[in-house]
Amino acid sequence: MAAPALEVDNLVKVYARRGQPPVRAVDDMSFSVPRGEIFGLLGPNGAGKTTLLKLLTTLLRPSSGAARIEGFDVALRPLEVRRRIALVLQETAGELLLNVRDNLLTFARFHGVAAPAARRRAAAVMEMFQIAAEAERKVQDLSGGTRRRVQVAKMFMADTPVLFLDEFSTGMDPILKRAVMGYLREEAARGRTIVLTTQILSEAEELCGDILIMNRGRQVARGDLNALKLLSAGVSDVALTFAELPPGLPAAVAALAPLRSRLDGNTVELSLKAEEARVLEIVGELSRMGRVLRVEMGGASLEDVFIELMRGQ
Amino acid sequence: MGPLRAMIVREAKIRATNVTFLFFDLFYPLLYLLIFGVGINAALSPARGGGYSVFFLAGVLALANFGIASSSSWSFFLDRDNGIFLEMLTYPMRRSEYLLGKLLFNIAIAFVQAALTLAMAAGFLGLRLDGRRLPLLAVLIAVGVTGWFFLYSAIALRIRRNDVFNSVTNISYFVLMFASSVFYPLGPLPPWLRTVALANPLTWEADWLRYATLGTGAPARLGWEAAGFALFAGASFFVAVRSLREQG
Predict the structure, then answer these.
(1) pTM of the complete model
(2) Angle of helix B162-178 versus helix B201-214 axis, rounded to 10
(3) pLDDT tens digits, residue range B106-164?
(4) Which of A50, B10, B113, B194 has the fewest CB atoms within 10 Å around its CB?
(5) Which domain range does residue A304 map to?
(6) Which of B82, B247, B248 minimises the CB distance to A95?
(7) Residue B1 banded pLDDT, cuts 50, 70, 90
(8) Domain boundary residue among A175, A206, A229?
(9) Last residue of one domain, picked from the residues A229, A263, A285
């Protein structure tokens, strides 16, 4: 049987700090990811996601434990690991002095793609990411969003079996983001394993078949979306749109002590942890405060699960 | 050869995007020879061996190697600022290949620069270089660039702040350049300055280049200078690779 794409065994990364206690940025994590999966790594800022990503991509050496990519140990066989991965960092990274085409070709050259194939592929990838018109422009002259496109586009220039994407959609407009999500699904269907970290939980909800939530360097929860939502059983999401915002609505919402709430124009969104009958009663009470144009109710979202888990921490 | 070739092509493409880079690498040292060298030559009575400019030629070649390596270390800052540095460390190559690729490109540039300098010296200063000395000259240029490249790479990798790096390189540039045999023979110098200059790897390189271009130099001194430079280059390589491994 083929090795999983990723295997992590009791992985630990400790940062020593002068005059201060050491920080366990990754604290005894163990998990594995099968090939062809879109795997989401979620957690609040400082949870240890980026450190974990750096360990898996050979940028850092583990303090103890082990991690393997396609069967190769990241500390013992880093070159074999690098032959199998591509990484999009959270920060925009690019060859600013080179033009868009050369950025793509340079990446391909490092990954051993032959020149004629790389040129053909660059043309196709630039079309996919709507940057063909900028092909001859230096990356330093492009907007932040377009630079990000170039950075993500590079991942499609070589067929590395594992892709790591750290907040890949930063700076992308919704249409392009949707298109890229489609490309990522296609790549996963072709057998590539995609590991993505994101703060945009709807993205993870839509893309990831398997999600790991971490905090303070440790695993907090793991599973597919349905399994995670069970962790938040009894949570309902409600959205009400009024013709005109009732004056007493904010106070009424606050009195309900929702898990989270948001007021956007004439729409109020809230997550409630209560029996279904009680949720219906609450919707009825709020509806009587003004003329309601739209009511939406649903089960817990990934965001609810995330907030619930982080509160527990 | 794949990653090395990719690295060399990348460096060449980046360098070719800016005329200023090429000017400083290839032509700036020639100005030393043509303006400073000719000026001093005219001001002083011609020294032994055909004038100051001919004496200074080896110094210019050493300065060019030193300058190419030091400006190349800037590329680490550029890569770090552009965010590409960490991404590149996940490309399929060893850390040593990353450094070696940059170094080979620097050596290639140094060869072109040396060819220009020698052509200029032959055309304007009447230097007649013995063709049999060219292989030695090529080896000296390659070894010289290697030593300086690894030293400045280690400094650039260890220092994270631009302003600190600037200060360190400017001060070291000044001390290494003037406390050496690049501009003048060491004999007439005050003892303290001569001692400092004798311990300076730039002196060792300039003396060897002078031997390759003019055939001057005491064998005993050249012997320990060669050993010293090899030690210096080896230690710089060790520190540079170690510094690169600590990135992340």
Answers:
(1) 0.82
(2) 50
(3) 999 999 999 999 998 888 777 788 888 899 999 999 999 999 999 999 999 888 888 89
(4) B194
(5) 232-311
(6) B82
(7) low
(8) A229
(9) A229
- Cβ <8 Å between B14 and A92: no
Rounded Cα distance between A198 and A90, Å, is 9
Amino acid at position A284, single letter = G
Taking 60 as the threshold, does the pLDDT of residue B47 lie above it? no
Inside any domain, residue A1: no
What phi and psi, each to the nearest 5 degrees, are found at residue B228? -60, -45
Burial class of residue A264, CB neighbours in 10 A (0-12, 13-18, 19+): exposed
Q: Mean pLDDT over residues B94-104, rounded?
A: 91
Mean pLDDT within A61-65: 96
Q: Which chain A positions have a beta carbon within 8 Å of B77's beta carbon?
A: none
Which amino acid does the sequence have at B121?
A: A
- Nearest CA among B164, B196, B201 for reference residue B179: B196
For A172-217, write each residue's pLDDT tens digit. Answer: 888 888 889 999 999 999 999 999 988 777 888 889 989 999 988 9
**Between helices B2-16 and B95-124, what is the axis angle to 10°?**
50
Comparing CB atoms, the residue among A60, A93, A98 nearest residue B83 is A93
Question: Which chain A residues are closer than 8 Å to B19 by Cβ?
Answer: none
- Claim to verify: residue A220 and residue A238 sit in the same structural domain: no
Question: Distance between CA atoms of B32 and B68, rounded to whole angstroms?
Answer: 15
Give how far A64 is from chain B: nearest CA, Å.
Answer: 17
Structure confidence by residue, pLDDT tens digits, B175-215: 999 999 999 999 889 999 999 999 999 999 999 999 999 88
Place of tokens 């496109």: A149
Please report the number of interchain residue pairs, chain A to chain B, with beta-carbon separation below 8 angstroms: 72
Assembly ipTM: 0.84
pLDDT single digits (tens) A139-175: 999 988 889 899 999 999 999 999 999 888 887 888 8
Q: What is the DSSP string of B178-230?
A: HSSSSSS-STTS-HHHHHHHHT-HHHHHHHHHHHHHH--S-HHHHHHHHHHHH
